Amino acid sequence: MSDTKFTEGPWIQRYSDRITTSDDINGTKSICHVYETAKTSGNRKANLSLIAAAPDMYEAIEYALGVLWQHNLDHVSGMAERSVFDKLQAARAKARGETA
Predict the structure, then answer these.
(1) In terms of C-beta density within 10 A (0-12 exposed, 13-18 middle, 19 or more buried), how is residue 20 classed?
(2) What is the pLDDT of residues 23-53, one digit of tens each?
(3) Among the residues of 2-78, which ranges form H helices?
(4) Is the dihedral of CA 51, 57, 59, 62 positive or negative?
(5) Domain assignment of residue 1, yes or no
(6) DSSP 12
(7) Residue 43: which domain range?
(8) 39/67 same-domain check
C-alpha cells in the first residue's frame, strides 16, 4: 500500500470555478479550477461537486475496506461482497495514482 499524497480535505467549492481547502478563507490556495468546454457544457457544477467530495469518498472507501477486512474476507458469503471489495480496492488505487 502507498501513502496518500493528496491535499487533506475537506475541500469546498469557491466562486464558480474552483475547489479549495475549507480553511482557505481567501480562496487563494486552489486545489483545482474547473472549466467548461463545448464537450462538457453544463457539467461544471456537477464536476465541482464531485471533485469537492473526493476526500470524503476516499475516507468512506478506507472505512469500508477496513470493515470488510475485520469481517475476514475468507468468510464472505458470496461473489457480490467480493465484487464490492474489488471495486473499493480499485477505486482506492486509482485515487492514489496506482492505476491508469
Answers:
(1) buried
(2) 887 777 788 888 887 777 788 888 899 999 9
(3) 44-52, 54-70
(4) negative
(5) no
(6) E
(7) 7-52
(8) no
Indicate if 59 and 97 belong to the same structural domain: yes
Rounded Cα distance between 27 and 34, Å, is 14
49-90 pLDDT, tens digit each: 999 999 999 999 999 998 888 776 666 666 677 788 889 999
- Alpha-carbon distance of 97 to 1, in angstroms, equals 11
Q: What is the dihedral of CA 71, 76, 79, 82, to 10 degrees?
A: 30
Beta bridge partners of 33: 18
Domain final position from 15, 35, 52? 52
76-to-60, 64, 84, 90 alpha-carbon distances in Å: 20, 14, 11, 18
Model confidence, pTM: 0.78
Domain count, the chain: 2
